[in-house]
Design a protein that fits this description.
single chain; 334 residues; alpha/beta; Quinone Oxidoreductase, Chain A, domain 1; 2 domains; six-stranded parallel beta sheet; 9 helices; disordered C terminus; binds zinc ion
């Protein structure tokens, strides 16, 4: 099978041929249909995540079909599954026993510590996979697995009774959570890089009430803001934009250092928090919501061998929506 492998810090990914792996106990072998590309893949490429063991196959927003099952797994061949970032947790620690397996110290992550979906086949622990409806094409469903899930968890951390939500960084996660927020009747305030007209147009097109640069302030205070861009300077900017008692949620796995800021920005019971990974309950709730609403994921499809091009376009802010690698047999979709 063909895989795209990260063999050293900085990359680029290398196209390699590997034998199709055999599922062990608790695992399924999936024939990958599509795998979306995430900013975390860039952090992996740049060596910004701790303890990367090379070689590693990136990709943690996988849609595939069960090709075979390992011992102890009773899933039908051909069943469609999605594989998210959280690929394993211990099941025994305090976090795991309190439905916070996203915080498990022994958690392992797809496309980082477990070979991921930039490949024609991949192995996954069946307990961390989600059934995926056939209503979505594989390319449209793939970004739901991280951009969608992390966005959903970030939104659920913003507090109740939201009327005005700010989003900093208008990429793949933002465009999905924006649709969920609008569906819930929340007005959207989109902050982009200064001068990023493409992202601003995209936010307008999705129905944002206000669109501006991250160094601007809307004329009304927001109830909450989510920061998807990996830029620490946005933290004081977002605190400035939210009302007393409001929340600022950092949705990324990596962020540049947060500059010091006056305590007055946090004062007034404003809250600042991060969101780490996802729980299986998030996945179930979000996918149920995704089947009740029509989330339209805007995708740009690339063949597997063009993974480096997709990563570069993501890095350079050239994407509108999400980049998705689509495996050869199904590249007629979307
Ligand atoms: Zn991701
Ligand atoms: Zn655990």
């Amino acid at each position: 099978m063909k895989v795209m492998v990260l063999e050293k810090r900085g990359g680029p990914l290398q196209a390699r041929e590997r034998p199709i792996p055999v599922p062990g106990p608790g695992q399924v072998l999936l024939k990958v249909e599509a795998c979306a590309v995430c900013r975390t893949d860039l952090h992996l490429l740049d060596g910004e995540l701790p303890e990367i063991h090379y070689p590693i196959v990136p990709g943690h927003e996988i849609i595939g079909h069960v090709a075979s099952c390992g011992p102890g797994v009773m899933l039908e061949n051909g069943m469609r599954l999605g594989v998210p970032w959280l690929g394993y947790s211990c099941g025994e620690c305090w976090y795991c026993l309190h439905e916070q397996e996203n915080l498990c110290d022994r958690a392992r992550f797809t496309g980082y510590q477990i070979d991921g979906g930039f490949a024609e086949y991949t192995l996954a622990d069946h307990r961390f996979c989600f059934p995926i409806s056939s209503d979505y094409s594989a390319a449209e469903a793939a970004p739901l697995m991280c951009a969608g899930l992390i966005g959903y968890r970030s939104l659920s951390m913003c507090g109740n009774d939201l009327q005005r939500l700010g989003i900093y960084g208008f990429g793949a996660a933002a465009h999905i959570v924006a649709q969920v927020a609008l569906w819930q009747g929340i007005a959207l305030y989109a902050f982009t890089r200064p001068g990023d007209e493409r992202a601003q147009l995209f936010a307008h097109h999705l129905g944002a009430t206000w669109v501006g640069s991250s160094n601007q302030l809307p004329d009304v205070p927001l109830d909450a803001a989510i920061i998807f861009a990996p830029v620490g300077d946005l933290v004081p900017a977002a605190l400035r934009a939210v009302r007393k008692g409001g929340s600022v949620v950092c949705g990324g796995i990596h962020m540049s250092d947060i500059p010091s800021f006056p305590y007055a920005l946090l004062w007034g019971e404003r809250q600042l928090r991060s969101v780490a990974n996802l729980t299986r309950k998030d996945g179930e709730k979000f996918l149920e919501l995704a089947s009740n609403t029509t989330i339209h994921t805007q995708v740009e499809c690339y063949p597997l061998h063009a993974a480096n091009e997709a990563l570069t376009n993501l890095r350079e802010g050239k994407l509108t929506g999400a980049a998705v690698l689509v495996m050869a047999e199904v590249n007629s979709q979307d």
